[in-house]
Automatic annotation (TrEMBL):
The keyword GTP-binding does not apply. The lineage of its organism: Bacteria, Bacillati, Actinomycetota, Actinomycetes, Propionibacteriales. This is NAD(P)/FAD-dependent oxidoreductase. Keywords: Oxidoreductase. Its cofactor is FAD. Residues 26-455 form the Amine oxidase domain. Belongs to the flavin monoamine oxidase family. InterPro entries: Amino_oxidase, FAD/NAD-bd_sf, Flavin_amine_oxidase, Flavin_MAO. Pfam families: Amino_oxidase (PF01593). The keyword NAD does not apply.
Amino acid sequence: MTTTPDPQSATSAPDRDVVVVGAGPAGLMTARMLQAAGLSVAVLEARERVGGRTWSDVVDGAFLELGGQWVSPDQTALLGLLDELGLSTFPRYREGRSLYRTAEGETVAYEGDTMPVGDATAAEMERLTALLDDLAAEIGCREPWASPRARELDRISFHHWLREQSGDEVACDNIGLFIAGGMLTKPAHAFSALQAVLMAASAGSFSHLLDDGFILDRRVVGGMQSVSEAMAADLEVHLETPVRTIRTHTAGVVVESDRTTLTARRVVVAVPPNLYTRISFDPPLPRRQHQMHQHLSLGLVIKVHAVYDRPFWREQGLSGTCFGPSSLVQEVYDNTNHDDPRGTLVGFVSDEKADALLELDDDARRAAVLGSIAEYLGPDALAPEVYAESDWASEEWTRGAYAASFDLGGLSRWGRHQTAPVGRIHWACSDTAAEGYQHVDGALRRGAAAAREVLDAG
């Protein structure tokens, strides 16, 4: 990116050493590390709160995790920060049988990690899992675009790749659920096999994504947003301050927002890639960035919360874990809060199913969601004390969930450029992480990496 002289800014001391745009976990970790290194940092956040895509709130008297919430054993960056901040975790309830709903509408209880499908389908699922585990180990999550197989795997959708490997439609649907609906929240035909391999590799293996006891292991006491709140407590954070323009000159940057204008030596943009275009860059970003950002998009998922007077499913010897690739609510989990006598279920409606659901009015949408959960757990599921939906696609400063992914061919073409600084502009978000991609852990890793880049740049 070409910078232009700015005599006034070039001769004046900057207001801060660094401005960070975005007070989610990535931006706050960046600011925290830079401040600890002795730099002056201001964080500008568009929302009225910190936390980004983590949001813990009380709705109708019930504490709900409206955004990201789970901690898995491999997320060492997050686990280390929790220890440092003095925050504790508690395990997700998962005792008892799980439930699987077939395409024919039968609900079947089962124990363990293997879905109750026919022997041939089970064998195909095991074989597809092994293939994906091998690819994840071979290609890895740090530079998947550098693999000799990158272009081959990036030119075919995950949907079609699965069907090239297997003629068992049920096996393909079940395997696809854990990447498409469960993680990238896009139809499996909308992203590549390489993007699916990256998702698996970022969690250590595809097998980890299949194991809800691993990937959805624990929660933070007090909510995941408390991690950001604790980091922000010692930082200069300006809320309700959306950044509109970033001007780069030979000596630094000028960051213009609705409430303030700050000069700095460098700026770290710590928002999802789909929001980069909300900021005007002067001079404009290079052509490569303009092209790349047009091929990155967030998925669509509605997170639904239902709070009951008691966790009634436990009385039936059920864990509350439910899967149904053909169901409206494809995943359900026991999300009961720490030391809460009430029972909470959380469910997810993603991609095209969410499109259809959002065409309904509030009452019809609630009835459809609870009806789908009741197909798993029975009529008690129809009458929660509290019902709420998290629709991140309608949230002005997010516009989707859970994270950005490339369309076909994009990861091998542009992936290596995602985190490269553009002059004095650096980038940090969970969407561009390797380990911990699309999780808080990945956001912290990318925030730390951006801070190191700034410090190394001097």
